[in-house]
Write a structure and sequence with these properties.
Oligomer: heterodimer
CATH topology of the domain at 28-92 in chain B: Immunoglobulin-like
Order of helices and strands of chain B: EEEEEE
CATH architecture of the largest domain in chain A: Sandwich
Number of domains of chain A: 2
Helix content of chain A: under 10%
Shape of chain A: globular
Shape of chain B: elongated
Strand content of chain B: 35-45%
CATH architecture of the domain at 28-92 in chain B: Sandwich
Distance between the termini of chain B: 23 Å
CATH topology of the largest domain in chain A: Jelly Rolls
Order of helices and strands of chain A: EEHEHEEEEEEEEEEEEEE
CATH class of the largest domain in chain A: Mainly Beta
Number of helices of chain A: 2
Number of strands of chain B: 6
Structural class of chain A: mainly beta
CATH class of the domain at 28-92 in chain B: Mainly Beta
Number of strands of chain A: 17
Number of helices of chain B: 0
Amino acid sequence: MSDHVLTLATPQQQKGLSSSGRVSVAKRGKSSCLVAMIWFLWLTGSAQNASAATQLFGYDFESGTLASKFTLNVPTATNVIQSLVVHSGTKALLYQPVFGDTSGNLAAAITPSTTVYATWWWWVPSTIVGASGRHGFRITKRAGNSTVGNYQVDTVMDSGGGFSIDILFSGDGVDSGSTYHRLFNLPTNQWFKFEIRCTLNTPGIANGVLTLWINNVQRFTATNVLYRSAATGMNGFDTFLLTTNFDGAGAESYWYMDDVEVWDGFPGLSPPPNLRVQ
Amino acid sequence: MLIACGPSASATSTTAGAATLAWDAVIAPNLGGYRVYYGTTSGTYTQSVPVGDVTTYTLGGLNGNATYYVAVTAFDTSNHESAFSNEVSKAIP
């Protein structure tokens, strides 16, 4: 018999945790649940510090199927949950499109939100071959039934070779993204923690925000992003997907992913309570 | 004197073109500060300003004959940012 218990741990220690050692949920005995909760509330001094963010998507790949989580498409047979390379727990995703597959993404709808915070763990093999525009992790606004998106943010592997990282986002307010921002190369054959935060701009005003962290270090930020124009001023990001145009160029074209979470705000920090006009 | 409780806004000392805000502190070991968001449409904040680790702030330069809607976020030392606080509004005469 098991239930849920509040516990403090790092992402390396347990499944389903975000950065900053935030409180999360792990399976433990029911009897310890109440004790742990009381301890936590006493430690923090007040229940008002509970996260106000809402989780829009979460998958640690420990149970269930890809089809049950990524419901906007039919996952291909080459995208599998496996146990060979995992970040935590016993399972993680292996993404390995077949040769010529430029559309075999894993896509899920999320509640539309003008701010999205996402975190995931990524492992890329040393055999990876660079190629232009290999999209990896995307937050977007669907265009009809297409996940190409009216506006989007992509974390992309580029042609720099190895685990090369670009950040791609729509910058003219009307399309899915046209400017690559080359960042750097990362070592292969190891896990990296990625986090992005995207806040949509006011339609037509270049005040959108995009920030990228890798292994808890901020590596990129922009505060003047024009994700959407006045004409395309729609509701928020409504889709999360893993990769398009990865293109399955060969046996080297695969990567692993684990512990994916998408929220409408950073879950590790509470908003200021009781705002008032003095 | 601040009103110590209750999430609803109250206006007691706002002057034309400015509004003084207050909020309760966020308890976090790695708190970096707060950011004030504001605009003239509820839920749509066209401007923001980082204000450091303070719990009061006077928002100046507001246009008259307009109502401003304001929310605040907290951010940590890694620049992670919380969700928005409750929203308050103030009509500037």
